[in-house]
Design brief:
There is one protein chain. The chain is mainly alpha-helical and 204 residues long. The chain is 63% helix and 8% strand. It has helices spanning 2-78, 117-124, 133-144, 171-202; strands spanning 83-85, 106-107, 110-111, 129-132, 166-170. It has a three-stranded antiparallel sheet.
Length: 204
């Protein structure tokens, strides 16, 4: 009987130890899971805050762009004539007479209209209708999203007498530049669409 009592006590101690070990392991697992949950929650909250910050920054940029578009529209209403009709026999500079070209403003890989007088005069060729410096400034400013002057024509004052001067840029060159800019914008839209599609496909 005493042996059975000892055996029973040993079994009870064994079961008690097993239960205590299970409870300890469960407590440790719960604590680890709680710490992981808190870490995951902190990461999520940080990412949400960063996303909100980026979204707010983008909204502000879009608002600024919208206001600038309105500003350009207002300037266009009061600008000097945007096109100039040249005399039919206006002298055209040759390549030998032209001064070295200065690079124009670049926007997303598409060349903006040159504002160097000699280069513009040469590029305009024998076109009778050419852009004014006001038109060049407004065009390049719209592309860049900020003020871009054209020669003596200040971007913030396209109605000044200096802006009424011809830039020597014909409609052919204007159309060619538009095609470059349109192609650049189309490529950007395709890249953005592909990126958005990739993010949607890879989202958990």
């Amino acid at each position: 009987m005493r042996a059975l009592a000892w055996l029973g006590a040993a079994m009870a101690l064994l079961l008690l130890g097993a239960w205590g070990g299970y409870e300890l392991a469960k407590t440790q697992a719960d604590a680890k899971a709680s710490r992981q949950h808190k870490a995951d929650l902190a990461t999520y909250q940080r990412q949400v805050a960063e996303g909100n910050e980026r979204a707010e920054s983008l909204r502000e940029q879009l608002n600024l762009q919208g206001r600038y578009v309105a500003t350009l529209h207002e300037r266009t209403q009061h600008a000097a004539p945007l096109a100039i009709v040249r005399p039919a026999k206006a002298p055209v500079r040759t390549a030998a007479q032209a001064a070295p070209a200065c690079p124009g403003v670049q926007h997303q890989g598409a060349a903006a209209i040159a504002t160097d007088e000699a280069t513009a005069e040469l590029a305009g060729g024998a076109d009778l209708v050419v852009l004014s410096l006001a038109a060049v400034s407004l065009w390049n400013s719209a592309l860049a999203g900020h003020d871009v002057s054209a020669g003596a024509c200040a971007a913030d004052d396209p109605a000044s007498p200096a802006c009424a001067a011809g830039a020597g840029i014909g409609l052919g060159q204007l159309w060619a530049n538009h095609q470059l800019n349109a192609a650049s914008c189309a490529a950007d839209r395709a890249r953005h669409a592909a990126l958005i599609d990739h993010l949607h496909r890879t989202r958990p």
